[in-house]
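#dry-run=false #mode=assembly
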Amino acid sequence: MKTFKCVCGQIIYFDNTHCLNCGERVGFDPASMDMVNTDLSGHQVCHNSLKYNVCNWVIEKNESGPLCKSCRITHITPNLSTIENIKRWRILESAKRRLLYSLLKLNLPIAADPVNKHPALGFEFLEDQSTNPLVAEEYVRTGHTMGVITINTSEADDVQREITRSLMKEAYRTPLGHCRHESGHYFYDRLIKNSEYQSSFVELFGDAGLDYEAALADYYSNPPRHQPEAGYISLYAHSHPLEDWAECWAHYLHIIDTLETARNANIIDSQEDDWIHDWLRLSVILNELNSSMGQSFAYPFVLTQRVIIKLRFIHQVAGQLPPS
Ligand SMILES: [Zn+2]
Ligand SMILES: [Zn+2]
Ligand SMILES: [Zn+2]
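#status=ok
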């Protein structure tokens, strides 16, 4: 993510709603991919910003309100009668906007394509009984079906998420990670399935048609030991070729967004074609910086040659470049 500038010259950040220097209201305009001063530019602020303070995007000039491009694709929000749920929703929308920024920047398609029968990308943020006893659904599974990404709102609760992360023996679990991972399933359907990338996919990740429910049941009843030399980015990537793909897709988005942040801050100065090399260098620095602050590693993963080959393939797919 890059930084932006207010008309007064102050640096403003992607999540800001106001300039800290001049106090003007600012918001992100997905049409120009820039932060704008809303009064000066004549943009309408998203209704979810004014009413719930969960959004800081503006409505594009060619769209009529009340919601911005990001909020329009949230189909279900948690029950908003409690402050806790609004807080959780705010965290999830913020992660979703960061995902959308990357997807828009990569020019990836998220609108429906009726000709090829691809649904639009959408989101549902659902709670279950563990966070709200009044909700009928016992357990909401975070996942992706037919273009809709469902995220259990308990993922926005630090305590709940840390308990799950620890139980699942995961190195990393965040709302942004969920958004990025689940978008991988959407783009598998949209960009890989029945496409010219299909044979490379099978070569690198395996057969996507492998019985999904059986593979996941086997993974949970008999979790493997994570050994980086096996060529998987994470433990969960072992579970099924589609999960391996989605994990690598999420990492690709982590990497390109973090590299943009670092380039913008002049921490690295090379060009984009060196992205893997830059990432290997930057991720070590990130981890060392975190260690200096007594925090755990920011990027607790090992990129083996096999994983790097998978990431390079994703770079081709995300850039919609011909397969090599
Ligand atoms: Zn300002
Ligand atoms: Zn909005
Ligand atoms: Zn998945």
